[in-house]
Amino acid sequence: MNMELSRRGFLKAAGVGVAGTTMGAFGFADLEAAQAAAIRPFKLTNTMETRNTCPYCSVACGIIMYSKGDLRKGEAAEIVHIEGDADHPTNRGTLCPKGAALKDFVKAETRLKYPMVRKPGSDKFEQVSWDQALDRIARLLKDDRDANFIATNAAGVPVNRWTTVGFLAASATTNETAWLTYKVVRSTGIVAFDNQARV
Predict the structure, then answer these.
(1) What residues have CB less than 8 Å from 164, skipping those under 6 apart?
(2) In this predicted model, what pLDDT tens digit does every residue of 103-127 receive, in sequence order?
(3) CB of 52 within 8 A of CB of 84?
(4) DSSP class of residue 154?
(5) Domain spans, the chain
(6) What would the pLDDT profile of 19-41 be if each residue is shown by its tens digit?
(7) N or C: which end of the chain has fewer CB within 10 A?
(8) CATH-assigned architecture of domain 48-107
């Protein structure tokens, strides 16, 4: 496409751009916001709101998930929209690019939804139940702690250390959950304890 722009045409186009920007600065852009606010409720009609925390970084932004399908009637709820929670004190409705794309994260085909285990000598993972996974984790942790717990140091001073296991906590939690996680992990004697936010 060959387009020739004269100096006079350029000045006219620039003038229109400046006028549009000026009108927006004077508040006429609120008309677009009002139209969007009028349309939005129709998009989310008959949806159920669920408040949660974004699963990414340690900021712990609040999100609202909208789902269709009434669980009381036995219907499967499907998430149709996710947005920032305007009432949340951390993010006040804003989300970073990863948080704004949470719906794609939830609906990803490759998302892991169930515990998987790869048995010794196997070349593939197999799905197990949550009870099996938690029982196995608890058993392995108990066996390792019993075998490697250090109650006292060489001078006989109680130290209560468990140095053969590390714990990596999730950062997208509330302060109360983070405090409880810290207390539980430290009470077992685990020394190597870190948070996802620093990874």
Answers:
(1) 144, 147, 148
(2) 888 888 888 889 999 989 999 999 9
(3) no
(4) T
(5) 48-107
(6) 777 776 666 666 666 666 666 66
(7) N
(8) Single Sheet (2.20)
